[in-house]
Amino acid sequence: MRIQTTRLLPSGSKQRGVYRFDAMIDVAADGSITGSKLSPGCDLPANLEAPPGRRIGKAVLVPAVDNGKFVAGVYNYHFAIPR
Predict the structure, then answer these.
(1) Distance between CA atoms of 50 and 5, rounded to whole angstroms?
(2) pTM to 2 decimals?
(3) Which pLDDT value is given to residue 82?
(4) What is the spatial distance between Cα 22 and Cα 77, in angstroms, rounded to a whole number?
(5) Do 64 and 73 form a contact (C-beta atoms < 8 A)?
(6) DSSP letter assigned to residue 41
(7) CA atoms within a 13 Å half-sphere pointing along the CA-CB vector of 66
(8) What is the pLDDT of residue 5?
(9) pLDDT for 1-59, tens place per residue?
(10) Residue 54: helix, strand or coil by DSSP?
(11) Could you tell me the sign of the dihedral formed by the alpha carbons of 18, 35, 63, 60, in that order?
């Protein structure tokens, strides 16, 4: 799965001092995002912590599949670029 957004480009992230963060995204069986939260230990400045969570919540993801049936699941997203 890939989250596509121009806001997470390395060039813009470096300008804002963002080099790494992890997020857990709750995905419903219909593919909708039902929740997201940033994991502790992110190097996001405090004023940027909420926006990535909102952007991730707008992502389109494919739900998990169990025995050929779509089910709810959790997607772990990792963003990291070299300093």
Answers:
(1) 16
(2) 0.69
(3) 84
(4) 6
(5) yes
(6) T
(7) 4
(8) 44
(9) 444 444 566 777 778 788 888 888 889 999 888 888 888 877 777 776 665 556 666 67
(10) helix
(11) negative
Match 């939260």 to its residue by tokens.
37
How many other β-carbons are positioned within 10 Å of the β-carbon of residue 12?
11
Q: Which residue has the tokens 């997020």?
A: 23
**Burial grade of 58 (CB within 10 A; 0-12, 13-18, 19 or more):** exposed
Could you tell me which residues come within 8 angstroms of residue 62 by beta carbon, excluding any fewer than 6 positions away? 1, 31
According to DSSP, the β-strands at 33-38 and 69-71 are: unpaired
Q: Where are the domains of the chain?
A: 6-80
The tokens of 62 are what? 């494919």
